[in-house]
Amino acid sequence: MFKENTTMMMDSNPPLFDQYEFLLQSTAHLQPFNNGNLPTNSVMEECQLPLIDLKGLKSSDEKERVACRREIFEASEEWGFFQVINHGIHTELLNRMNKEQIKLFGVPFEKKFTSGILDNSYRWGTPTATHPNQFSWSEAFHIPLTKVSEAACYGDFIYLREVMEEVASAMSKVARKLAGVLVESMGQRKELLEDICDESTCFLRLNHYPICPFSGEVSGLVPHTDSDFLTILHQDSGGGLQVMKGSQWLAVKPNPQALVVNIGDLLQAWSNDTYKSAKHRVVANPMRERYSIAYFLCPSYHSQIGSCREPSPYRHFTFAEYRKQVRDDVEKTGYKIGLSNFRL
């Protein structure tokens, strides 16, 4: 019965069922099916990430400014994840973005896949997966900031262009503000970010997680860390985001008023491991679909990712080197290895 319903939905949803079923069949002779990435029953509890009120950064009271900055430092050290309120992005704008996102993902799959919309940035499933536990039950558009304002990228989606320009600008401001606070805590000039961060390598990612019949066995998005300085995420009320703290997966309780912020690999390296790029994942859902939008703050490809002080546990490398190593590792092993490749 599900297969029939899935076929009916293929009009807009990518053929995730078929790709995943093929992976199951092609690996059945290797070992019994078992997804080591998704022991969902091992999630101990739903957690509330550290919640930080950013109005403290603008307070006229120096003690309040210092206290707010300290909260950001401590959350970045202990969790690598936190949520922020009073971030300056209006709920009405985020709601408009969500409505346009639903319209976009609702168009026929073939149009999303072949029309070149949003700079031909559409991706679905996991083309590099060689085992079911490497497969993500999701689809996404991953758009460079330099393309967000180009009318030719949008076709008939004229209202999407307007709201995406606003969201990109607003999320960029939040990301740079928070990254600047963290950079200053390392004894660096916050203006350094303006020197090395490049709109051509910063991205917006629109995510859609369709209903999944294998929700206890497959990820909406496989466990990973982010290969950037800082990520800003707005998620809907559906939940599904989980963060690893220590050796335990914790389910992040959605907060409609907050943005989720997480440290990326590059800031962990720059801070000599003071700030943590925490592993996270999205759990698939058998009952409802989920939408989110993420902004990734990245440096230019030639930028050297150094250290806030010497000695550093990492050799110096460029963002281009890091991206290439990640791609090579995924192609060879199915997984991102990340910073451990660059340790001295």
From TrEMBL:
InterPro entries: DIOX_N, IPNS-like_FE2OG_OXY, IPNS-like_sf, Iron_ascorbate_oxido_reductase, Oxoglu/Fe-dep_dioxygenase_dom. One of its GO terms (molecular function) is 2-oxoglutarate-dependent dioxygenase activity. Keywords: Iron, Metal-binding, Oxidoreductase. It comes from the Eukaryota. Pfam families: 2OG-FeII_Oxy (PF03171), DIOX_N (PF14226). Residues 198-299 form the Fe2OG dioxygenase domain. PANTHER family: 2-OXOGLUTARATE (2OG) AND FE(II)-DEPENDENT OXYGENASE SUPERFAMILY PROTEIN-RELATED (PTHR47990). Belongs to the iron/ascorbate-dependent oxidoreductase family. This is Fe2OG dioxygenase domain-containing protein.
